[in-house]
Amino acid sequence: MNLLEAVEGKEYIVKDIVTEDEELEAFLFSLGCYSGEPITVVSRVRGGCVVSIKDGRYNIDTDLAKAISI
């Protein structure tokens, strides 16, 4: 299941980042989004969602959300 299918407010553990794009993977890693880390969908917005990773909140688009396997 990917992040787009997640329930708002529920904490999940990132299983994998599914992408061929190394820049995208490096960007997510810089946010603290990598395998084994907790992630929560705070809310859904047009074109993506707001997620909580560690102590930060980030607005990520649909493509990023699809790449995050939980």
From TrEMBL:
Q: Please indicate if the UniProt record lists Iron as a keyword.
A: yes
Q: Where are the transmembrane segments?
A: none
Q: Which residues form the Ferrous iron transporter FeoA-like domain?
A: 1-70
Keywords for the protein's UniProt record, in alphabetical order: Iron
One term of GO molecular function: transition metal ion binding
Domain of life (superkingdom): Bacteria
Record-given protein name: Ferrous iron transport protein A
